[in-house]
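--- STAGE predict ---
source: upstream dedup step, 1 unique chain passed
mode: sequence only
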Amino acid sequence: MEQLKTYHSASRESFCPGHPEIEHVGIEVTTGPLGQGIANAVGMAVATKNLAATYNRPEYEIINNTTWCMVGDACLQEGVGLEAISLAGHWKLNNLVLIFDNNNITCDGIADIANTENINAKMIACG
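--- STAGE serialize ---
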């Protein structure tokens, strides 16, 4: 409960900051502009696939990880994020997982002020 009280705070001890920074265990990359984190995650997943194709051998798999990316409503209103998702679907990156906080809220208010498309349908269309 104490951690939840620090939600969206500047506290470096918080597990629930608004924008997690690399000082938190498990956070490998942090970004600035909305949607850029999705593009970073796609790049990391592509890099993993390339490393696996280069170094893995039958019966000796050394590269086999999943890239996890948390995104919010506003992240999916940005072209860079949606274009990266489209590319990930086209390349069938099965080592990438997006966790979508589909709460219809952005820093500026409700998400449907600027966007009313069906995000689930869009994700299915992207593959």
